[in-house]
Design goal:
By secondary structure, the protein is an alpha/beta fold. The chain has a domain of about 240 residues: Queuine tRNA-ribosyltransferase-like (TIM Barrel, Alpha-Beta Barrel). Helix content is about 40%, strand content about 20%. The protein has an 8-stranded parallel beta sheet. The chain has a 4-stranded antiparallel beta sheet with strand order 1-2-3-4. A 3-stranded antiparallel beta sheet has the order 8-9-10. Strand 2 and strand 3 form a beta hairpin. It starts with 6 loop residues before the first strand and ends in a 13-residue tail after the last helix. The N terminus is likely disordered.
Length: about 375
Amino acid sequence: MDRQCAVASLTAFQFQIDRQCSQTRGRACSFHTPHGIVETPRFMPVGTLATVKTVTPAQLHETGAQMVLSNTYHLHLQPGEDIVAKAGGLHRFMNWSGPMLTDSGGFQVFSLSELRKIEERGVTFRSPRDGAVIEFTPERSIRIQNALGADVIMAFDECPPYPAERKDVEAAVARTYRWLERCITAHERPQDQALFGIVQGGVYLDLRQQAARDLVQLDLPGYAIGGVSVGEPSEEIHRIVEATASLLPAHKPRYLMGVGTYREMVQAIASGIDLFDCVIPTRLARHGAALVKGDRWNLKNAQFREDFRPLDEDCSCYCCQNFSRAYLNHLIRSREILGYTLLSIHNITELVRFTTRIREAILSDRFVEEFGHWLQPSAVPVAP
């Protein structure tokens, strides 16, 4: 079928499947939000503290980014959700007019393993800024996100570490479900903020599958797969995503959290994933590294000192259209902030463009022909 008009009414949201790949579960979709349309598959840059590091909103727009992610935990610590709300919400505060997503803060809280205590009510932890005792509950996470005002907000979940014993993962999955029910009850802005649930389960596929089935029964606007890319091998990520994605509703968006590498995104798209986020593009830039056609280049290397070609001759970004590898080498070696900005612009553009090209390939039903080299033979899910 050239166009499957499966549209889900999500209050102020709509999700439409524009084209289904004939050989895999990959799809090209349009996710309508109060602040615009997100055309998927799509990589989302991370703006943890209401800013994508070293990049202005105007520069970010030029990368082709459509949806940006910010972090509930960090914004609660600084400047505080009340200040953001007084500014008119996250969009006005950071001057980004496009769609936004906030995570729940759960991953950051649970990464503070030596500073936090998990109980049924929520998590108590000490602020890494000043040592103050802070309590995060599902209700508080939702209240903060309601105040921030992003288009998509995430349920507060328990993200088990890798590796973890089965009994601990079972407990985390059960608690995540109970906390999700509390998040739904606490959510005060369902008309203009879509609440996504998060599938946990570690590397245990039966726990992942049961968690997915349970969450689907709650009929949420969208679903995410969390707790991956936390130290497990790439093969495990693919195994988890392939086993889980097909259990999530086809007529709602599917979001794979914390993944932004080429191969893992292609494999996840083949399994039916729509959205991705990762700090990789800006983090690599701050270390002087660029993403070029699937490879990572260290611009500090001496080979670039007298290389006056563009970073990527096929890239249309501001960095590649205006500056040479030699100049970038000079900036990075000199630790000039402009170097980090230019590499961030390029790296974000590269990952956004990569997922945009995948979308175009799916629309012309050439996904496997053009991107099959990123797939293992066993990593091509059969089309439904």
